[in-house]
């Protein structure tokens, strides 16, 4: 006996092409912004834009798949924020944004100041199933935004100095 089955996958192929096009467009937008944007699944960095890597002083593509705690090993306050954000994202708590400010050595020995904001991933992408062989329920997912605030810090220091000078006069 011989059976022939024909499947029409036109709609499926069109949906796949639309998804690929959307991904290219979003990647272009994210790579064009000055803010560093990253997506975490549990403690691992799933994807980030070039700005995120550049701000952390990483080679392009070097951060993907790495635990973010390893990339920020010299920042205990940021690691505490990430642990708190992951715990918050794993629970039924309402949407919450956590922020931390930290500095890293920059060119010429001057510190470069950053603000890291962590929030739960959008509902459509939330709670990925735990990978096979790992205990527990769904893996929490976070969106991180890393912003260079060095110029703001410098302006703040300048204003504070002007205020001190004014008080002395």
User: Topology as H/E string?
Assistant: HEEHHHEEEH
Number of helices: 5
Question: What's the arrangement of strands in the largest beta sheet?
Answer: 2-1-5-4-3
Q: Tell me the radius of gyration.
A: 22 Å
How far apart the termini lie comes to 102 Å
Mean pLDDT: 82
Low-pLDDT stretches are none
**What general form does the structure show?**
elongated
How would you sum up the major sheet? 5 strands, antiparallel
Level of helix content?
Answer: 25-40%
Total strands: the figure is: 5
Structural class estimated from helices and strands: alpha+beta
Structure description:
With 169 residues, the chain is α+β, with helices and mostly antiparallel strands. Helix content is 40%, strand content 22%. The protein has five helices and five strands. The chain has a five-stranded antiparallel β-sheet with strand order 2-1-5-4-3, with helices on both faces. The model has no long low-confidence stretch (mean pLDDT 82).
């Amino acid at each position: 006996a011989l059976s022939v089955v024909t499947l029409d996958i036109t709609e499926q192929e069109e949906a796949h092409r639309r998804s690929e096009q959307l991904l290219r467009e979003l990647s272009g937008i994210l790579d064009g912004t000055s803010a560093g944007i990253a997506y975490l699944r549990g403690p691992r960095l799933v994807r980030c834009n070039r700005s995120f890597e550049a701000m952390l002083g990483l080679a392009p593509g070097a951060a993907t798949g790495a635990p973010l705690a390893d990339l920020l090993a010299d920042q205990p306050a940021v690691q505490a924020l990430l642990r708190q954000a992951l715990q918050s994202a794993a629970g039924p708590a309402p949407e919450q944004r956590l922020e931390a400010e930290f500095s890293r050595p920059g060119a010429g020995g001057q510190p470069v100041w950053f603000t890291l904001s962590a929030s739960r991933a959008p509902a459509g992408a939330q709670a990925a199933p735990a990978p096979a062989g790992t205990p527990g329920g769904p893996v929490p997912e976070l969106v991180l935004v890393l912003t260079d605030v060095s110029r703001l810090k410098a302006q703040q220091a300048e204003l504070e100095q002007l205020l001190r000078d004014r008080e002395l006069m």
